[in-house]
């Protein structure tokens, strides 16, 4: 998202990047009223939903990269908890009502300023209807997942790790990032 050209507080066009006193980062500061505009990462919340050894994926119907597959997940809205955001995204994208079982992953992608928070969830209801951002919804056995068509690298890493853990019968909280390639696993 591009930085604002005008101050959100007073409408002045006098925004410049400076490090406010006592801060450690440059921020957009209004020369007119002193308003500090913070640019923070986006939070993506979603769920891994498993049923009978198969995993729920949705095929993207919108840019970027329509036709690719992903876990049901999306941007958190103001006023939501991460759990509410994850369940809303599952509903909007797949027509599935779900219940969160546990947190599963916190994955940072600093290069694009995103943080993925993924939960384990179970199906409560399947409507057979999906939202307009989705071309199709399908449960895949691990060997049938279209791995080369998973759009987001973070989602692919999270899902691969989850399937490994599922096969081993252990779950924890998977934490990692794409900068260092290090993945932490807490049992």
UniProtKB/TrEMBL annotation:
Pfam families, per database record: NUDIX, Zn_ribbon_Nudix
GO function term, MF aspect, one: hydrolase activity
The keyword Hydrolase is annotated on this UniProt entry: yes
Keyword flag Transmembrane helix: no
Gene3D superfamilies per UniProt: 2.20.70.10, Nucleoside Triphosphate Pyrophosphohydrolase
Keyword terms: Hydrolase, Magnesium
Nudix hydrolase domain: residues covered: 40-162
Names of required cofactors: Mg(2+)
Family matches, as InterPro entries: Nudix_hydrolase (IPR020476), NUDIX_hydrolase-like_dom_sf (IPR015797), NUDIX_hydrolase_CS (IPR020084), NUDIX_hydrolase_dom (IPR000086), Nudix_N (IPR029401)
Lineage: superkingdom: Bacteria
Family to which this protein belongs: Belongs to the Nudix hydrolase family.
Protein name according to UniProt: NUDIX hydrolase
